[in-house]
Amino acid sequence: MTAVDIREASPNGPETHVLSTDQLVTWRWRALTQQLPTAGFPAGSQAPTLVYLWTTMLVVAVAVLGFAVFDRDDVPTAVLDSQQDLMVKVSRSLTLSLIAADDAFDQTADALRGGAPATTATIGRLAGDEASWAGVAVIQPSTRKIVAASAQAVPLNLIPGGGLPEGNSPVMTTDGPAVIRAVTVGQDRMLIGLQPLLLRSLRLNPDGKHGVYVLTRAGDAYLTQGVDAVPAGFRKQLFEDLPHINNSRSEVVRVKEWSGQALVVSGAPVGDTGFVVASVIVADVTAGTSLFHGLVLALVVALSTLLAYVLMRASLVKPLQHLLHQAKLDACGAITKDRRALRIREGSQVAQALAVSSGNRLRANKWRPTVLQGLLVAALVALLGPAFAVAVAVTQPRATVPVQLNRDEESRVEAISSTLGNALSSGLQTVEHLSRTQATTAGDPVVAALKEALADNHRLRGIYLVAADGKPESSAGRPSLRAAQPLPGQGGVVLDPVVNRLPVLYAYRVRGDGRAFVAEFDIDYLLGLMRSADGRAVVADPELRTILDSEGYRAFQPLRDPTVREAAVAALSGDTISRSKDVDGRPALVAGAAVTNPDVAHLEWVVVLDRNANTLQLPSMLERRWALLTAAAVVAILVVSLIWMYFIFVRPLRRLANASARIVEGDFDEPVTPQRHDDVGAIAMCLEICRQVRHTGSARFGGAVRLRGSAANFTAVLPRPRIPNQRER
User: Fold this and answer.
1) 81-85 long-range Cβ contacts below 8 angstroms, 24+ apart
2) Selection from 549, 508, 540 nearest residue 424 by Cα
3) Taking the chain (729 residues) in consecutive chunks of 10 residues, what is each chunk's mean pLDDT?
4) CA distance 165 to 514
5) 506 close to 519: Cβ distance less than 8 angstroms
6) What is the rounded distance in angstroms from the CA atom of residue 329 to the CA atom of residue 683?
7) H or E segment to which residue 94 belongs
8) Whole-number pLDDT of residue 201
9) Cβ 392 vs Cβ 630: under 8 Å
């Protein structure tokens, strides 16, 4: 047979110009090409290496972008986020207080509409020292004449003349912001009330000249807490856009005269009242992330990726491409003068089998690495980039937590302790109210009262009337979990000392006949209150046992985190504390406060809020985070690519190499079965053609019998059918 040119041609053809010296081989090549599987994505041998290369380069580009975005001198993003979150919490607390006050106000209005007399006694329960309304009155809206009033006078002069608007009207009194609510209760009768907008006491940073304001839509600003860091003449300009916001926001305001400092202005609307709470602090400007570090990191990762890509191609892609080209030549009966021994063991074994099947020999006795060994070397090289990224993250200097974050964390933990204390106190007030109104009742009337009280208090899981021995007689809600034993004393909030599997917390009040009303608190509801702040919130008792934990826990287990234990001990004295470092000196954000509500202070509980400092948006933390994310992403891409190559190419190639070893030893009886319809499968099919030719002795080559079909089925290239034109029809 005539020798042909064996230069490697493109896998996609055309091949005819390469084999043009032998028309028979050219025909066989066409027949074979039409039958071999086309290795498209993701079956092609080049697919995993290319995917690895380009996805890793994309990760590198994103990492550089991440370093570049934060490469600026500015107030740390963590400070802006903390102030914005604080204002959101304050506005939400004010909104809930207004809603609760409006509900009580509307109940009185319904009573007046139902025929209750418009007297001071009727409306007096809404106003007073312990009520949410500073003053209420019934007036004639046409003349604004007062029919009945209680507590403070409602300043109707702050609402322009004419008819009073229904609902809430925000006003700014001499004592600060307030809401005037007006509801029609009859013919020429309106119930009006004045509710001051009172903010809970916040932990402010005196060094940052922290001030909290309440703004109106008219642009008026009232300083409610802290100090005024902005002269009055510039205040309107500073708060120009805040009175009209619909969502919370936080921004940095630069002052030309200040060097290294800037104002941080944050705000959040208070429901639909028209008020906005705003915070202003003076914060230090710090350096951002280093773009130079990001570029160096990207360069190292990119170079290691490129080198690994080259090794992957040398270990897998190039051997497969060479084998496929040589296998197609051998399957077509072309004579190859010079055969090249491959440097990969499996490829060398297949190349020897092709040579033996074609009547040639290929010497390859020296040791060669396997494909898997070559890929492992490539993986080790590829890991140099992620290792450098981890080194960059580890060698970052420890972040310094700004003092402002500690103050904000103290405000959050105090809010949790206050909310928790109020929820427990509310349960105690519920049973005290029942003991007064149901002092002697029993049976169905008391059951109805229990159900009504439970419906009005979603903090409770159940309310019970228990006998003197502690056993429930009447109940509403879920079954009681407390131990059925006599109650300790006349009333209060108690943690059941007998039940050890979970905290059973209940409030009780003993009646004059020895029976008592007991309200068990819903632990899930209390945990929901603790989850209102970011981080882990823990409630501990004086023995440093875990009573509640927002991240899952076993009740009454000792606190194990040394930093949390130290904060709990410090807060047991009644002071609110915070820590910017843990016991090992690493950055941390921990705050603790005691539950000081008078009704539950005897429990001596403390709340500790522990926040992971690694999540803070501080420059050094951002650099560490970007470096670790880059390392993790590159390693993940590498692992996926290696798994892809191993299962799709390495294992089938290894099986093909085992079959090739039998052929090299002279065994041509066992067929070579293709494993997949890809490059490895195409090589196996070509090797099977060569084996059949060698085994049967007939020179059919491209027309040899395939594994599928009968022995009479030969390969044939059918001519394309000719379609007659219109004239021939």
Assistant:
1) 81/250, 81/617, 82/404, 82/405, 82/408, 83/250, 83/264, 83/266, 83/279, 83/281, 83/404, 83/408, 84/248, 84/249, 84/250, 84/266, 84/268, 85/408, 85/534
2) 508
3) 42 40 73 77 84 96 93 92 93 88 89 89 80 89 89 88 84 90 92 91 90 89 88 83 92 89 94 91 91 94 97 94 89 80 87 83 77 95 94 86 93 93 91 89 89 88 93 92 90 88 91 92 93 92 93 88 94 93 90 94 94 89 92 96 93 91 86 82 88 72 44 50 60
4) 51
5) yes
6) 11
7) helix 77-113
8) 87
9) no
Between the alpha carbon of residue 308 and those of residues 301, 375, 378, 649, the distances in Å are 10, 9, 5, 17
Q: How far apart are the first and last CA of the chain?
A: 46
- The domain over range 402-615 is classified in CATH as 3.40.50.2300: no
Question: Per residue in 295-342, pLDDT tens?
Answer: 999 999 999 999 999 999 999 999 999 999 988 888 888 878 778 778
* Tokens, residue 548: 């509640």
How remote is the C-alpha of 708 from its chain's centroid? Answer: 53
Q: How far apart are CA 144 and CA 158, in angstroms?
A: 13
CB 548 within 8 A of CB 523: yes
In whole angstroms, give the CA distance from residue 599 to residue 432.
Answer: 12
Neighbours of 619 (CB within 10 A): 22
The dihedral built from the CA positions of residue 206, 207, 209 and 210, taken in this order, carries a sign that is negative
SS3 482: coil
Neighbours of 58 (CB within 10 A): 12
178-236 per-position pLDDT tens digit:
999 999 999 889 999 999 998 888 999 988 999 999 998 888 889 999 998 888 778 88
Residue whose pair of structure tokens reads 């936080």 in the numeric block:
250
SS3 558: strand
With contact defined as beta carbons under 8 Å apart, do 288 and 70 qualify? yes
Sheet strand arrangement including 606-611: 546-549, 536-540, 606-611, 587-594, 577-581
Q: Are 546 and 540 in contact (CB under 8 A)?
A: yes
For residue 311, the one-letter residue type is L
> Is residue 371 within a helix (H) or strand (E), and if so which, with residue range?
helix 371-382
Question: What is the spatial distance between Cα 608 and Cα 551, in angstroms, rounded to a whole number?
Answer: 13
- For 11, phi and psi rounded to 5 degrees? -60, -25
Residue range 390-405, pLDDT digits in tens: 998 888 888 889 999 9
Distance from C-alpha of 587 to C-alpha of 615, rounded to nearest angstrom: 11
3-state secondary structure of 370: coil
Q: Look up tokens 């051998």; give the residue.
A: 330
Q: Under 8 Å CB-to-CB from 728, ≥6 apart: which residues?
A: none
The contacts of residue 632 (CB under 8 Å, 6+ apart) are: 386
Which residues have CB under 8 Å from 612's CB, separation 6+? 535, 589
d(CA 582, CA 568): 13
Strand positions, DSSP E, 125-256: 135-140, 145-151, 167-173, 176-186, 189-196, 211-215, 221-226, 249-253
Contact between 317 and 45 (Cβ < 8 Å): yes
Q: Retrieve residue 505's tokens.
A: 């917390």
Rounded to whole angstroms, the Cα distance separating 118 from 115 reads: 9
- What is this structure's pTM? 0.77
Place of tokens 């400070």: 79
In angstroms, the CA 568 to CA 550 distance is 16
596 phi, psi to nearest 5 deg: -105, 5
Going from N- to C-terminal start, the domains of the chain cover 74-286, 402-615
What are the tokens at 366? 């020296």
Q: pLDDT over 70 for what percent of the chain?
A: 91
- In one-letter notation, the amino acid at residue 304 is S
Encoded tokens for 378? 């490539």
pLDDT digit string, tens, across residues 438-491? 888 888 889 999 999 998 888 899 999 999 999 999 999 999 999 989 998 899
SS (H, E, C) 154-165: CCHHHCCCCCCC
